[in-house]
Amino acid sequence: MRALVIHAPHDLRIDDVLVVQPGTGEVKVRVRMGGICGSDLHYFHNGGFGAIRIREPMSLGHEVAGTVTAIGSGVTCVAVGDKVAVNPSKPCGHCRFCMEGERQQCLDMRFFGSAMRFPHLQGAFREELIVDETQAVKVLPDTPFEEAAFSEPLSVALHAVSATGSLVGKRVLVTGAGTIGCLVIACARYAGAAEIVATDVSDNALAVAAKMGADRIVNVASDPGILDHFTADKGFFDAAFECSGNGGVIASLTQMVRPRGAITLVGMGAEVPLPISVLVTKELALHGSFRFDREFAWSVDLLTRRAIDVRPLLTGIFPLQDAVKAFEVASDKSKSMKVQIAFD
C-alpha cells in the first residue's frame, strides 16, 4: 500500500509499505481523509521541532477518518463497514496517570507520526491503518469523511475549554485564530460564552473565526495598542485562551483578564518570563492544556450532529499524488486554515 513518508526536510515521498493484518483486539481501517497538522508541517519544513528530529523515514499524519475493512478476534466496538474517526493516541493503560484517569499524561504514550521515540511511531497518512479497536470511534454513516477527520483537533479544543471551567455567560478572549483557535471559539460558544473576541495577525484567519462564532475580531498587526481598552478596571475578560504559541502575549493577557479569571495556554512556543506579581495579586488561574483523552468520543458526537460545524475551516482537499502541493498550501497561513489529503 501507499504511505506519505518524510525522509528529510522538504523530502516528502509516496512510498510503498507492507500491508499488515489486524491482530487480537485490533481493526484495519481504510483511510479516506487526513488533515495536515502543524506538527506535520514542522516535520516537512524542518525535519522536526525543538530537540525532536526525524532519524529515519517516517509516515506523517494523525488526523484521519476512514472505513473498517477487517477486524481481529475479540473485537466488539466496531464491525466491518463502519465509518470511523481514528484516535491517534494510545496510552499504556497501566501507568500512574492512566490509572488516575489522566491518560493524556501517560508515561508511555504512543501517538501516530511522532519522532519522539526511536524507532519512530509511524503516522496515519497511509491507505490502510491498524489500530486498537478503542481507537476506532464510529461516526454516523452520513457524516462526511472530511468532517470526521476534524475529530482530533476538535478534541484538543474541547480539552482546553473543559479545563477552564464554566464559560456560561462569560466574556472570552482567544488569541490566535488558527485551526485550534477557531475550534476553541466554537467550543466556547457551545459552552455558553456570552461574548467572544478573537485576535490574530491575519485577516483571512479572523474571517474564519467570525464564521466559527467570534463576536468581535481584532487584527493586532494593524495597531499594537488596539486591545489596551480591555485592561481598564483590572480587566475585561473572564477567561482567555492563548492559541497562537506566542508566549510574549501572556503578560498582556494578565492585564486583560479580570481578577479571579482564568488563562489557558493551548499553543506552544518559546519560553517566556511570567508576570508572577500580577497573577498573585489578581488571583488569576493559569492553566496548561495538552492533547485530550475522553474528549475524543465527545468530539465525534458533536461533529456527527453538527452541533459544532467545522466546514468553514476546510480550505481544500488534495489527492494523495498532490501531497507536496497540499503541504505547500497548508504552509501559507495567510490563505489557508485546514488542508486535507484524500486517500481514495
Mean pLDDT: 96
Helix fraction bin: 10-25%
What is the top-level CATH class of the largest domain? Answer: Alpha Beta
- Corresponding CATH superfamily of the largest domain: Medium-chain alcohol dehydrogenases, catalytic domain
Order of helices and strands: EEEHEEEEEEHEEEHHEHEHEEHEHEHEHE
Coarse shape: globular
Oligomer: single chain
Beta-strand share of residues: 25-35%
Q: How is this structure best described in words?
A:
The chain has 344 residues and is α/β, with parallel strands linked by helices. It folds into two domains: 2-150 and 310-342, Medium-chain alcohol dehydrogenases, catalytic domain (Quinone Oxidoreductase, Chain A, domain 1), CATH 3.90.180.10; 157-288, NAD(P)-binding Rossmann-like Domain (Rossmann fold), CATH 3.40.50.720. 24% of the residues lie in helices and 29% in strands. It has ten helices and 20 strands. It has helices at 38-46, 96-99, 145-148, 151-164, 179-190, 203-211, 250-256, 276-281, 295-304, 323-331; strands at 2-8, 11-16, 26-35, 48-49, 52-53, 58-59, 63-71, 83-86, 89-90, 110-111, 128-132, 136-138, 171-175, 195-200, 216-219, 237-242, 257-265, 285-288, 314-319, 338-342. The strands form five sheets. Strands 3, 7, 8, 11, 12, 19 and 20 form a seven-stranded mixed β-sheet that branches. Strands 15-14-13-16-17-18 form a six-stranded parallel β-sheet. Strand 17, helix 8 and strand 18 form a beta-alpha-beta unit. The longest helix is centred in the middle third of the chain and has 14 residues, at 151-164. The mean pLDDT is 96.
